Every structure is written in structure tokens, then in C-alpha cells.
Automatic annotation (TrEMBL):
Family classification: Belongs to the ribulose-phosphate 3-epimerase family.
Function: Catalyzes the reversible epimerization of D-ribulose 5-phosphate to D-xylulose 5-phosphate.
List of residues binding substrate: S8, H64, G140, F141, G142, G143, D173, G174, G175, G195, S196
Pathway(s) it belongs to: Carbohydrate degradation
Catalytic activity, reaction form: D-ribulose 5-phosphate = D-xylulose 5-phosphate
Cofactor comment text: Binds 1 divalent metal cation per subunit.
Keyword vocabulary terms for this entry: Carbohydrate metabolism, Isomerase, Metal-binding
Protein residues bound to a divalent metal cation: H31, D33, H64, D173
Known cofactor(s): Fe(2+); Co(2+); a divalent metal cation; Mn(2+)
Annotated protein name in UniProt: Ribulose-phosphate 3-epimerase
Length: 220
């Protein structure tokens, strides 16, 4: 699968979200970080903002739910028109049911793992998902430093996914920039979230192009 870039609006100006979405027409997705002050010590936005953003842009929304009760809320994000909805393995109590409900609403279903959460215990869930999100920072805040210790897990995730037919995308999220994206791509990631590296750049379009080129080069 070709490299995909998903700029995170966490690093955008929340007062001008429609303009910020329009600022990256070359992005494959818009990454929407939903935080609830419970699963992570930060609060961002919820369903009404996702509904408004969906109407404001044709770029598909990649919703990353960092919330304590994804089983209750995730299907509603799919219903609101998100193209992809990702729940955290550490938070979901009924992941099989929730992932199936996301898919039943027509969205891609994602499973996210914190840096210290191993991938192997979730192998049996792979048939239920379309994307595995590997956090490369502790979730909760943008602008953190990329954690190299996740690189071996990206490799193991790519191996597992390949064994299951290679249909599942491997996404990395946190501290991804022109300096770190190559290592992620080389390890097997194919979808790259970047907040600060895109919205903190003077030319967000050029930043997306540069990230895509660096990841594509690293994959060889
Ligand atoms: O999920 C997230 C944080 O929990 C964000 O998507 C991530 O941190 C992106 O921001 P940056 O590229 O600045 O690290
Ligand atoms: Fe995220």
C-alpha cells in the first residue's frame, strides 16, 4: 500500500478548524484526537466538532479516541461520518463488539496500543480490525519526543499483519517528523500521523509532501 499521511489537527488552530483542514489538500486523512480528561490528562473535542468538520472538508476523518469508555462512544463517531475510528486496547472492555459496530456503520476499525502495550496478545483481534495504531509517544499531548523503543514493536506488528494477509494498515502516531518518519517506514508502518511537523511548519502542504517523500524513500 502507498504511504499515507494523516495530519493531526491537535496541532492546528482550534478556532479555525475548517481553514486548517483546507490547508492540507494533499493529506490522505485528517487525524482527529479525541481526549476526555479520563483516559488521558487532556481534553480536546468530541462528536459535535467531528460532525461539523465532516461537513467542512471532503478529506476523510481518522478519529483517534483517547477516551475511557470507547465501547459507548466509538460507534457514534462512525455514525457521524468518520472514515476511520480507532479505540485503545487499554480502554475497551468489549473490543470485539465495538470494532464490529464501527464497521457496521461503514467506517474502518482501528485498534491503538500505548508504547508499553505489547502487540502479541491482540493477534486474535486482527480479523476484526482494518488498522493497528502504534503510539510512538505516551498519548495525551502533541509535540512530544518520538520514542525509539517502539521501533521493534512496529517490526513485530508488520510481521503479524503480513501473516494475516497484509490487509491491515500499520499507523504510527506521536513525534513523527522528517527526522523520524524514515525509521518508522523502514520498520513497516504505512500510515503516518503528524501534528507539529505539519501544522507547525510554515508551509503545511510542503511538509506533507516532504513526509510522504521521506517515508516512500525509506521503504525503498
Ligand atoms: O495522539 C496524539 C497524542 O496523544 C497525537 O495524534 C500526536 O501526538 C500527534 O502530534 P505530534 O505529531 O505533534 O506528536
Ligand atoms: Fe493521535
Amino acid at each position: 500500500m502507498a504511504v499515507q499521511i494523516s495530519p493531526s489537527i491537535l496541532a492546528a488552530d482550534f478556532a479555525r478548524l475548517a481553514d486548517e483542514a483546507a490547508a492540507v489538500p494533499n493529506a490522505d486523512w485528517l487525524h482527529v484526537d479525541v481526549m476526555d480528561y479520563h483516559f488521558v490528562p487532556n481534553l480536546t473535542l468530541g462528536l459535535p466538532v467531528v460532525e461539523a468538520l465532516r461537513k467542512a472538508t471532503s478529506t476523510p476523518l481518522d478519529c483517534h479516541l483517547m477516551i475511557a469508555d470507547p465501547d459507548r462512544w466509538a460507534p457514534q463517531y462512525a455514525e457521524a461520518g468518520a472514515g476511520s475510528v480507532t479505540i485503545h486496547a487499554e480502554a475497551a472492555k468489549a473490543p470485539v463488539r465495538t470494532l464490529r459496530e464501527i464497521r457496521a456503520q461503514g467506517a474502518r476499525a482501528g485498534l491503538a496500543l500505548n508504547p508499553a502495550t505489547p502487540v502479541e496478545p491482540y493477534e486474535d483481534l486482527l480479523p476484526e480490525i482494518d488498522m493497528l495504531l502504534l503510539m510512538t509517544v505516551e498519548p495525551g499531548f502533541g509535540g512530544q519526543k518520538f520514542l525509539d523503543l517502539v521501533l521493534p514493536k512496529i517490526r513485530r506488528a508488520r510481521e503479524l499483519v503480513s501473516r494475516h494477509g497484509g490487509r491491515i494498515w500499520v499507523q504510527v502516531d506521536g513525534g513523527v517528523d522528517a527526522g523520524t518518519i524514515g525509521r518508522c517506514a523502514e520498520a513497516g508502518a504505512d500510515v503516518f500521523v503528524a501534528g507539529s511537523a505539519v501544522y507547525g511548519a510554515s508551509d503545511p502542504v510542503a511538509a506533507v509532501d516532504e513526509l510522504r517523500a521521506a517515508a516512500t524513500r525509506a521503504r525503498g
